[in-house]
Specification:
This protein has 276 residues and is α+β, with helices and mostly antiparallel strands. It is built from eight helices and eleven strands. Helix content is 38%, strand content 25%. The strands form two sheets. Strands 2, 3, 4, 5, 8 and 9 form a six-stranded antiparallel beta sheet that branches. A five-stranded antiparallel beta sheet has the order 1-11-10-6-7.
Length: 276
């Protein structure tokens, strides 16, 4: 057999081997999906950047997390870093996609314990939002006021409501447990009543049912400094078009920086577009 035929035979065998492994891992559900991600943040006019974010991917799925810390003497910065690192560690350690609800509950409570372990109660805390994407299904969880939304066909649809007093009041009013007059007095209070890093941590807000993602959907995680620092319509406009997720994230944060307000909070955004 000539050298040329040996080379062709080798190439054919290599193609067969690659095709076998691709088929095998697809059958096992282990194919790594493609995700396009973008993330950006600004310190605003604050002295310390207390936001943090992270992304993590395995053959099981994709995790994105954003934390908004709070506290004195760098307590917020430490808390948000603990939150992100703990979530990523838990994602790598457990088969999160097998039971997303269990994973979120276990992970968020682990974050709460870890913050309390490293910081005295009251010295630091964090809001946190996390999304898990598996097989084009979106699962999410929130503690505090990080906002999670999906951008689809030029509309940014919020998924989470958050744990601020005004949201609690709205729920209580709809349940009929408080009067309209009581609700109106309390609706302006956007202080958090539930967050990570406190002995009285309650529970998380998470998905009722997974959201089935469609082609060109963008999953959005935002800290309150971002979604309260610009109009919702402006965010929608900046998410439109064919630019990459990273460029869109930069432009949204630059719009925050260009704002005329004297007091600007830390602002962060994470964008995730799944390959369908």
């Amino acid at each position: 057999m000539t050298l040329e035929k040996w080379v062709l035979l080798f190439i054919y065998l290599l193609i067969l081997i690659l095709a076998f492994f691709r088929f095998f891992y697809r059958e096992k559900g282990k194919v790594m999906r493609r995700f396009k991600a973008g993330k950006a943040m600004t310190i605003g006019t604050r002295q310390v950047q207390e936001d943090d974010y992270g992304i993590c991917q395995s053959a099981e799925g994709f995790l994105a997390v954003l934390a908004d810390g709070m506290g004195k003497n760098y307590g917020g910065r430490v808390s948000s870093r603990i939150a992100v690192d703990t979530m990523k560690d838990m994602f790598e350690e457990y088969q999160a996609a097998e039971n997303p609800a269990y994973f979120f509950r276990k992970s968020f409570h682990a974050v709460n314990r870890e913050i309390l372990k490293q910081l005295d109660d009251g010295k630091g805390g964090a809001s946190m939002g996390a999304v898990l994407i598996k097989d084009n299904c979106l699962y999410y969880a929130v503690a505090g006021n990080v906002k999670i939304a999906v951008y689809r066909k030029d509309v940014l649809v919020p998924l989470s409501t958050g744990h601020t007093i005004d949201m609690l009041v709205e729920d209580r009013f709809m349940e009929g447990t408080i009067t309209r007059e009581e609700a109106l007095k309390m609706l302006e209070n956007k202080r958090l009543y539930n967050y990570l890093g406190q002995d009285g941590f309650k529970d998380i807000e998470f998905f009722d049912a997974p959201v089935r993602l469609k082609e060109k959907d963008i999953v959005v995680l935002m800290s309150d400094g971002l979604y309260e620092g610009m109009e919702w319509k402006t965010i929608e406009e900046l998410l439109s078009g064919k630019k990459k997720c990273q460029q869109k994230a930069y432009e949204i944060v630059e719009m925050i920086n260009a704002g005329t307000g004297k007091e600007k909070d830390n602002a962060s955004i994470v964008l995730v577009e799944a390959g369908i």
